[in-house]
Amino acid sequence: xxxxxxxxxQVNVAExxxxxxxxxxxxxxxxxxxxxxxxxNRGLQFLLKYITGDNLVKGSYGFEAEFNKSQTSxxxxxxxxxxxxxxxxxxAVRDGGYSxxxxxxxxxxxxxx
Amino acid sequence: xxxxTQNPRYLITVTGKKLTVTCSQNMNHExxxxxxxxxxxxxxxxYYSMNVExxxxxxxxxxxxxxxxxxxxxxxxxxxPSPNQTSLYFCASSPDRDRAGQPQHFGDGTRLSxx
Lengths: 113, 115
Description:
The structure holds two protein chains of two kinds. Chain A has strands at residues 3-5, 10-14, 19-21, 24-26, 31-38, 44-50, 56-58, 64-68, 73-78, 87-95, 102-103, 107-112. Chain A contains no helices and twelve strands. In chain A, strand 5 and strand 6 form a beta hairpin. In chain A, the strands form three sheets. In chain A, strands 2, 5, 6, 10, 11 and 12 form a six-stranded mixed β-sheet that branches. Chain B is an all-beta fold.
């Protein structure tokens, strides 16, 4: 069975500092990996994905994520955090493209001014 | 504007009173899905549909029904709601489940409170 772990319930970072939100996964086949962001009272919005190719993928709002197959990780990163980045972030995985999408429990990112 | 629309956005009701949450998408997507979001549990899939008249159970289908009579609509039905179905519900769609690299588009959510 596929699974996703987001080990941090909350990440705190000061504005202007780099941020990392961690995600590890478990699948039996090839992983299709996604990051979504949820702002208050809104649905999830797609940020970026890894299907194949370069291990570093770039997405919306200056976010990027690094796929590491040996560590089965897909951490979300941004070089310089903004207060407006404060939101709930979800990592999700699909196993080989022929299964449903499994979400992590979410990580709340709080960026202080 | 491409969107997934859910109604109602908020509902407070009582145990046993049947309710329907509607979901409609205007992107001609084949795949639609319902999730519930609970604190500490993330999103869990309730039901999904790969196309018209094709539906299947997700991880937590008990107490829910769905139908897919038209491509654009995917209502979620609670025949006899119970307090443990109090949650935040999201509908999502994507072009085709077999094109698994396509991200899902989410509605803004429906907050249900079952008293």
